[in-house]
Write a structure and sequence with these properties.
This protein has 3 helices and 15 strands. The protein is mainly β and 210 residues long. The protein has one domain: Beta-galactosidase, Chain A, domain 5 (Distorted Sandwich), CATH 2.70.98.10. The chain is globular, with a radius of gyration of 17 Å.
Length: 210
């Protein structure tokens, strides 16, 4: 127990979220590109993909949605804010014909950046992993800020969800919960040289548990 306490701590941030309770909760589009799960039956998580974004995550059964959707937002902090499902054109692929993994390649409408995302479930845990690579013009990427927007709908509903920021071993994570069901989102960043200039890589992990 002491090891667990030293591993994580609550973050105060700026207090309660503004605008509560927000808009009436709604579900995302029923037009799906893919439904996927892990190759192992020991993982009780499923997910859907549409409009170039991660949609519902189902847990612990295929009829229990725990999220509405998750997408990326992009801004230079001054002149634009771009939303993936509205401001990008995307192509959908399977990573391999025999693997339950999905790849989405999205291009900003003016062609200044390309976002490649790969989705897969952990075969032994209720975790959805999303590997993200952002490539484009060096000058444009140097001003680009990327934000992950996740809409928890725990236990099948968007109302009554609670969330806090938490520090886990030096990394900021988001923890949401409702009743006895919880969800955690964490990201891990890196940079490397890419064929279009600078490429930013991010791995985002979404885990559900009850």
């Amino acid at each position: 127990m002491n090891d667990l306490i030293t591993t994580y701590r609550w973050l105060d941030d700026d207090g309660p979220a503004f605008g509560a309770p927000g808009l009436e909760p709604r579900w995302t589009s029923s037009e799906k590109d893919a439904v996927s799960t892990a190759y192992s039956a020991s993982s009780r998580v499923w997910f859907t993909v549409s409009h170039g974004t991660l949609n519902e995550i189902y847990y612990p059964t295929i009829d229990r949605p725990q999220t509405r959707d998750m997408e990326l937002l992009f801004s230079d902090g001054e002149t634009f804010v771009h939303e993936e499902k509205r401001d990008f054109n995307y192509d959908f692929h399977y990573v391999d014909g025999s693997a339950p993994a999905v790849r989405v390649v999205s291009k900003e409408q003016r062609g200044r950046s390309t976002v490649t995302k790969e989705f897969i479930c952990d075969p032994h845990h209720p975790v959805v992993l999303m590997n993200v690579k952002i490539a484009g013009d060096e000058d444009f990427l140097s001003r680009l800020k990327c934000y992950a927007l996740l809409a928890p709908h725990l236990n099948g509903g968007g109302a009554g969800n609670s969330a806090r920021s938490i520090d886990v071993a030096g990394d900021r994570c988001i923890l949401a919960w409702k009743g006895e069901t919880s969800l955690a989102m964490a990201g891990f960043r890196g940079r490397r040289a890419g064929m279009w200039g600078r490429a930013m890589g991010t791995r985002i992990c979404v885990r559900t548990c009850a």
